[in-house]
Design a protein that fits this description.
Helix content is about 70%, strand content about 0%. The protein has one domain: Alpha Horseshoe (Serine Threonine Protein Phosphatase 5, Tetratricopeptide repeat), CATH 1.25.40. Helix 2 packs antiparallel against helix 3 (about 40-50), helix 3 (about 40-50) runs antiparallel to helix 4 and helix 5 packs parallel to helix 7. It is mainly alpha-helical. The longest helix is centred in the C-terminal third of the chain and has 21 residues, at about 110-130. The chain contains 7 helices and no strands.
């Protein structure tokens, strides 16, 4: 029995670690961190979920990470995630312009160039979509 206990503990620890390396588990943990106002951890977890290969990346995941990073006062990281969201097909420009979670970024010199880039990216995507109709 004494020999079995370390094996069981080791297995439990590795199972817990494995559970945290799936995208759904990481996203769930990110939302929990976000609602606990641990924005830095939420951003890290969103980024980890996005980095996993073959996880069915949703554009909103990067947007959520950007909001978390902005709320954590990590502007450089916050600006990286919307770029990934746009590249993945995120297209809610109206929300981007009024999102209070991104308010800290609006005073940053990178905001207007990013906003113009977002507008152009979304316009190109809409034009491609209209061509296919």
């Amino acid at each position: 029995m004494k020999l079995l206990a370390p094996c069981v503990l080791s297995l439990a620890a590795s199972t817990s670690t494995l559970a945290q390396t799936t995208a759904p588990a990481l996203k769930s943990a990110a939302y929990a961190a976000y609602f606990a106002k641990n924005y830095r951890q939420a951003g890290q977890l969103c980024d980890q979920a996005w980095a996993l290969p073959g996880t069915g990346k949703a554009p909103g995941d990067c947007y959520d990470a950007a909001c978390s990073w902005a709320l954590a006062s990590e502007a450089t990281k916050a600006f990286a995630d919307p770029d990934r969201a746009l590249a993945a097909g995120w297209d809610n420009l109206a929300h981007l312009k009024i999102d209070e979670e991104l308010a800290s970024l609006q005073a940053d010199k990178r905001w207007l160039p990013f906003l113009h880039k977002a507008e152009a990216t979304i316009a190109r995507a809409e034009a491609r979509q209209n061509l296919s109709l």
